[in-house]
Design brief:
Helices cover 40% and strands 19% of the residues. By secondary structure, the protein is an alpha/beta fold. It has a single domain (20-212), classed as P-loop containing nucleotide triphosphate hydrolases (Rossmann fold), CATH 3.40.50.300. It has a five-stranded parallel sheet with strand order 2-7-1-8-9, with helices on both faces.
């Protein structure tokens, strides 16, 4: 029997503009798997897909603007929002807090946008746990779909990381160890895409999205 998790529609995806239910799209992948490239292409091709704007307690960098790149909060406000259960997911990284507010995602979806979250496996797990608490008819729960992007193998990932020529050996080893751990969570995702060829992987990513829109 064909595994529904990995079944992709066969026909060539077609970009259409007819109304459809908003999606909340979660994409995770180990570093070096091409996730950012694939997500950026998706946002460029589909005007109604937009990145979720996260909250952070770190200071703005360069020309970053509040409400555009991040919502910049004080640690006191961030912790208060955690206490109130306002985040779908959050984490503390290098002394600063990062998180996705339920209201931010819901507002974008109510405006007709499909919201794309580029988050790690821990954030995705938190998000799934948050969804269980939502009513089955809640737009976020109804529109949720998650995708894990894998390398063809850890050996190929190591080759790609070394090919960058930008990381020290200890950084490469840490990324590989993290990748091995993250790949153990791949089966928790509804869809898995192996990025052994960028064009093929992007075709599959588009197919998953169009299928989620009921256009498959």
């Amino acid at each position: 029997m064909e595994d529904k998790k990995h079944r992709l529609i066969e026909q060539e995806p077609q970009v259409v503009s007819r109304p459809s239910r908003p999606l909340m799209i979660v994409v995770s992948a180990p570093s070096g798997c091409g996730k950012s490239t694939l997500c950026d292409r998706l946002v460029d091709e589909f005007p109604r897909i937009t990145y979720s704007v996260s909250c952070t307690t770190r200071e703005p960098r360069g020309e970053e603007k509040d409400g555009v790149h991040y919502f910049f909060l004080s640690k006191k406000e961030f912790k208060e929002r955690i206490k109130n259960g306002e985040f779908l997911e959050w984490a503390k990284v290098h002394g600063n807090y990062y998180g996705t507010l339920e209201d931010t995602v819901l507002f974008a979806m109510e405006e007709g946008s499909h919201v794309l979250l580029d988050i790690d496996v821990q954030g995705a797990k938190q998000l799934r746990e948050s969804l269980i608490k939502l009513d089955m008819r809640h737009p976020i729960r109804r529109g949720f779909t998650d995708i894990f992007i894998s390398p063809p193998s850890l050996e190929e990932l190591e080759k790609r990381l070394r090919g960058r020529g930008t990381d020290e050996e200890k950084v490469i080893q840490k990324r590989l160890a993290n990748a091995a751990s993250e790949m153990e969570s791949a089966n928790e995702y509804t869809f898995q895409i192996v990025n052994d060829d960028l064009e093929k992987a992007y075709h599959e990513l588009k197919t998953v999205i169009l299928s989620g829109l009921g256009l498959g």
